[in-house]
Amino acid sequence: MAARVKSLSKTFVWILMGLLMAGLAGFGAVNLSGTIRTVATVGEETISVDEYARELQREIRAIEAQTGQPLQMSQVRDLGIDQSVLARLVAIAALDNEVAALGVSIGDENLSKEIVQIPAFQGVDGTFDPEGYRYALDNAGLSEAEFEADLRRESARTLVQGAIMGGLSMPETFAETLAQFVGARRSFTMATVAPASLDEPVAEPTDAQVAAYYSEHTDRFMLPQTKRITYAILSPEMLLDSLSVDESAVRQLYESRESEYHQPERRLVERLVFADDDAAASAKAQLEIGSATFEQLVQDRGLQLADVDLGDLTADDLGTAAEAVFAAGVGDVVGPLASDLGPALFRVNGTLDERLTSFESVEAELRDELAGEQARRQIEAQAEALSDMLAGGATLEELAQETAMELAQIDWTDDSSEGVAAYSGFRDAATEVTEGDFPEIRFLEDGSVFALRLDEELAPRPEPLESAGDRVAAAWIADETAKALADKAASVVTGLATEGDFAATGLPHRVENGLTRTAFIDGTPAGFMEQVFAMQPGDLKVINGTDAAFVVRLDEILPPAETDELAQMKQALNAQVSQALAQNIFDLYVRDAQTRAQPTLDQRALTAVQTSFQ
């Protein structure tokens, strides 16, 4: 018990130090004046305005650090942060009031030990630094007396918490029951009734059947919320035909990429370097008489093949070894040859022929690239003038008439991804636009500019039968097929009930032994195993899937397999539920203490603290 209390005490000390560091990071921005001193009274304990302000600021700073955005006090109230901070402080004060009534406290010696062990108060030599202690508390807006009183109360709370929570454990029956449920197993036989098993396939529906099905299942053929958008766009591709590119510029771009378009003959090479010529010659001799392989020589040197792989090299890369390496065949080992690291053996793993891309074969591509860059520069130069036209009241239609921009429309949904909707810049603008917004010039990722206008926003609605007809027919066939499969499976169950022989059904079948609830069988629907576990031995059941029906007979109910994994799961479950039990009991104790302390709040003080943050 003492060790557990000590552990809990250190935990609360670290929590308290977290609050202290938060205060060091930013406290002081809040400055309350006047005679207001407390925001709440809980029994004989009080919650000071400084304590509430410090805790509220810590919570705000933590959320700002997570989101990267500053929080206004109105947002703090909307999120309920002010109320959660107050509730936490009231609960702590209620527990302090209870602890004081019980007369629980720690002595000065224990308090001193706690303080000197806090790393934030230690100097560079790891020992307690009194000056650093006072400096840290002063920056946090705390006096030594206030901090030591807080730490004393924290330690006392820890002792009470340890006394309540220590030694509590849930009966092992609880974890055993859960483990029995999770680890239970079933053995069963199943036959698959697939569409190919039907006596005849489902026929295509008539127009009347499609229309009737559509009327009965209109909710399955709904169009999503749609924005009808008119937009004007000017893309680099639209200007290519009107631009001329200087021939010398195209040739210069080709020459600048000579290494890309002209790749000389290369070899895929591995190189094993030795300390001297004798060692290299000895290794080569072993290869020639077959007493060792190149791989063995590499391993004998404590290396892997990846360590000696040089990749693809040109003759210039190989230096004086180039002639012998390039003359060798794939798989040959040549050497010893000189290298920049010493004598080495070279193994050739492959050849790469010279690759020459002529100017004529890439001229059009290079010309389009240069024209595209020129077009993007022109568009960027025109963007300001286009924006001025829109600001002056020009419509998208007028923009398309008076400039090179083209007008188009799109029925845009969240799933749109083709054409202009493939650009994230357009999707963002389409998502944001609302009725009445004025069009503005925006850029796309490829250098295009566009402006858009929301013409109409359509709520989710049934898709007309004329356009949904094929999907309606497919859905009708799927439903009718599922009915036929269910009927076929039902007839199979009737036969099995009398004969009991799955082989006699003529259907593909299988036997599954000792499967748990979490087992997955390919092709079966979700919840398949749960339905199997609801059966009793000898039961026959039809389980309908999406593309097939399954006839299942439960053969045996098996207990969990006694494995190390099951034993570990029981242990983990027992620890988890015991911890939850102890925490719940402690929470009830705190709530009872809070009820008996009868907290009273000073709304004026609370408002004053919150106002000081604005």
TrEMBL record:
SUPFAM superfamilies: FKBP-like, Triger factor/SurA peptide-binding domain-like. Pfam families: Rotamase_2 (PF13145), SurA_N_3 (PF13624). Coiled coil: none annotated. It is a single-pass type II membrane protein. The chain crosses the membrane at residues 12-32. Keywords: Cell membrane, Chaperone, Membrane, Transmembrane, Transmembrane helix. Residues 245-363 form the PpiC domain. It is found in: Cell membrane. Gene3D superfamilies: Porin chaperone SurA, peptide-binding domain. Belongs to the PpiD chaperone family. This is SurA N-terminal domain-containing protein. It comes from Ruegeria aquimaris. The lineage of its organism: Bacteria, Pseudomonadati, Pseudomonadota, Alphaproteobacteria, Rhodobacterales.
